[in-house]
């Protein structure tokens, strides 16, 4: 089984926006309480932030983190989470049916994000609230001083504005599960007016409008079209969300789902450009894929969790090896759409459908999906290069002509480094790939990292990393031809300098 590829320095798709390696922390399950914040943990710092968790987050080099939801934001009063902790109210958190203590809020999140070197992507509540709460919130976070809300911030110990640049106008407003669900027209109107008022407070911000919650929503892609038609001039990005699973235990079909994501991106891009043409606008709307991941392992066990607990273990998917392959393919898909996908958030970051898990009062550990995320984030920075790939193909239950190989390449001019990311979806056989990289004259292979495992269902735990990468991949570079053996069902990263 053989495949061929050409990578040429001049086939540039776009500069990669590093924010495609973003993530997400929602007040949900043990993401905040018992995840990033656990004041009684031996690893907690003076703020109550777990240092062991911060180290694992830093390892991923996450440039931007979305907060505080998710479904939760549609019922959230941001004011509950600021000011003296003893005065903060306990509330019913309706989206996930828990008790929210508000011991962690906006200022703590900004503080924590700085410590992990990430920017904040803040969402406003367009479910139970609207323009008024949004304009107050941005006055609190971004206005220098001398007004009610900016002085409140100062009195809470933050003299300088937080200067939050990226804002989400609500969350999944098309979903019947969403508190305050909206028709496309209702949402378009509230997004436009809220965006307008927020930009009056701070014209330097960037706004992300909701698109559809996933491709199966009956109003997809009309929801996007109507929202864009109404709010085109106020917004900067449209949001995409998608989760995948392997409920039917059909690995070939499961691994092909990156094609669905590719198609989703094409459709939303076309919808944006159709409205651009309709408006005779010069402005291009970019894509923020601000929720994506595998999510299905924990769905049954979550039904058994009693309501109104503080930080119950919700959405705690334990990921296996094949999930890591799909995650690797999804990141490859983003790189190949670097011209339009400018932000993306793996949902989520800690404990809740996450690459990082913790035990209450115990260890923090890495799931299988941590590794493709870490390597792509760390080395996938520079110009995305278009791979001209010819790969053997297969058919699966829902897809035809699926290339066995997914690949993306990034050229980092500063480091003079070419990095190739490849997934072999063939679970039975190795594939031999010949890549013509003659335009990278004088380069040599630095490392070939491989994530592979005999058992597609192998998982990591708090005590053992069954699935972890090794650096003994088989790649030889001679006269501009890179010969690589891609072992069956493997994720690969080849660095060439
Ligand atoms: O990430 C988990 C949930 O998935 C989010 O709260 C919501 O936006 C989506 O449906």
Task: Describe the fold and architecture.
This protein is of the alpha/beta class and 497 residues long. It contains eleven helices and 25 strands. The protein has helices spanning 51-60, 106-115, 131-142, 148-155, 184-201, 222-231, 251-255, 257-278, 299-302, 321-336, 370-379; strands spanning 2-6, 12-15, 22-24, 64-67, 91-93, 98-100, 119-124, 166-169, 206-209, 237-244, 286-294, 341-346, 356-358, 364-366, 383-385, 388-390, 393-394, 402-403, 405-412, 417-424, 431-436, 445-452, 474-478, 481-486, 490-496. The strands form six sheets. Strands 3-4-7-8-9-10-11-12 form an eight-stranded parallel barrel, surrounded by six helices. The chain has a six-stranded antiparallel sheet with strand order 2-15-19-20-25-22, with helices on one face. A five-stranded mixed sheet has the order 16-1-21-24-23, with no helix packed on it. Strand 9 (206-209), helix 6 and strand 10 (237-244) form a beta-alpha-beta unit. Helix 8 (257-278) packs parallel to helix 10. The protein is globular. Bound molecules: alpha-L-arabinofuranose (AHR). Alpha-L-arabinofuranose binds next to loops. Residues 26, 69-71, 171-172, 213, 291, 347-348 line the site of alpha-L-arabinofuranose (AHR). Keywords: Carbohydrate metabolism, Glycosidase, Hydrolase. Homohexamer; trimer of dimers. Pathway: Glycan metabolism.
């Amino acid at each position: 089984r053989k495949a061929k590829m050409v990578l040429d320095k001049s086939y540039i798709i776009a500069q990669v926006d590093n924010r495609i390696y973003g993530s997400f922390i929602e007040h949900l399950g043990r993401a905040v309480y018992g995840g990033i914040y656990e004041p009684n943990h031996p690893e907690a710092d003076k703020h109550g932030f777990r240092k062991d968790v911060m180290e694992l987050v830093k390892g991923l080099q996450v440039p931007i983190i979305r907060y505080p939801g998710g479904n939760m934001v549609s019922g959230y009063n941001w004011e509950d989470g600021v000011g003296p902790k003893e005065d903060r109210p306990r509330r019913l958190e309706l989206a996930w049916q828990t008790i929210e203590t508000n011991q962690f809020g906006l200022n703590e999140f900004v503080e924590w994000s700085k410590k992990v070197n990430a920017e904040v992507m803040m969402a406003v509540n367009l479910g139970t609230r609207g323009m008024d709460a949004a304009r107050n919130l941005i006055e609190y976070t971004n206005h220098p001083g001398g007004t009610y809300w900016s002085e409140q911030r100062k009195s809470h110990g933050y003299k300088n504005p937080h200067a939050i640049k990226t804002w989400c106008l609500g969350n999944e407003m098309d979903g019947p599960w969403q508190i305050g669900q909206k028709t496309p027209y209702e949402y378009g109107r509230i997004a436009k007016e809220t965006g307008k008022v927020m930009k009056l407070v701070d014209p330097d911000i960037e706004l992300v409008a909701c698109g559809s919650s996933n491709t199966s929503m009956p109003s997809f892609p009309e929801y996007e079209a109507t929202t864009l038609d109404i709010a085109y001039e106020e917004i900067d990005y449209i949001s995409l969300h998608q989760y995948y699973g392997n409920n039917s235990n059909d690995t070939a079909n499961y691994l092909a789902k990156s094609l669905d994501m590719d198609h989703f991106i094409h459709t939303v891009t076309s919808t944006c450009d159709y409205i651009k043409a309709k408006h005779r606008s010069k402005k291009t709307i970019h894509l923020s894929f601000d929720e994506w991941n595998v999510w299905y392992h924990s769905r049954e066990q979550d039904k058994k969790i009693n309501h109104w607990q503080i930080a119950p273990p919700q959405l705690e998917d334990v990921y296996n090896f094949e999930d890591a392959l799909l995650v690797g393919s999804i990141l490859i898909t983003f790189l190949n759409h670097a011209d339009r996908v400018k932000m993306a958030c793996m949902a989520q970051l800690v404990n809740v459908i996450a690459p990082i898990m913790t035990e209450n009062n115990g260890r923090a550990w890495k799931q299988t999906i941590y590794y493709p995320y870490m390597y792509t984030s760390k080395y996938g920075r520079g110009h995305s290069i278009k791979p001209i790939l010819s790969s053997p193909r297969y058919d699966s239950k829902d897809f035809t002509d699926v290339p066995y190989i997914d690949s993306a390449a990034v050229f980092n001019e500063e480091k003079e480094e070419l990095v190739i990311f490849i997934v072999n979806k063939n679970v039975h056989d190795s594939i031999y790939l010949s890549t013509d990289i003659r335009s990278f004259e004088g380069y040599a292979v630095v490392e070939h990292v491989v994530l592979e495992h005999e058992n597609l269902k192998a998982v990591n735990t708090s005590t053992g990393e069954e699935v972890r990468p090794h650096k003994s991949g088989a790649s030889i570079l001679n006269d501009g031809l890179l010969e690589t053996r891609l072992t069956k069902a493997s994720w690969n990263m080849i660095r060439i300098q």
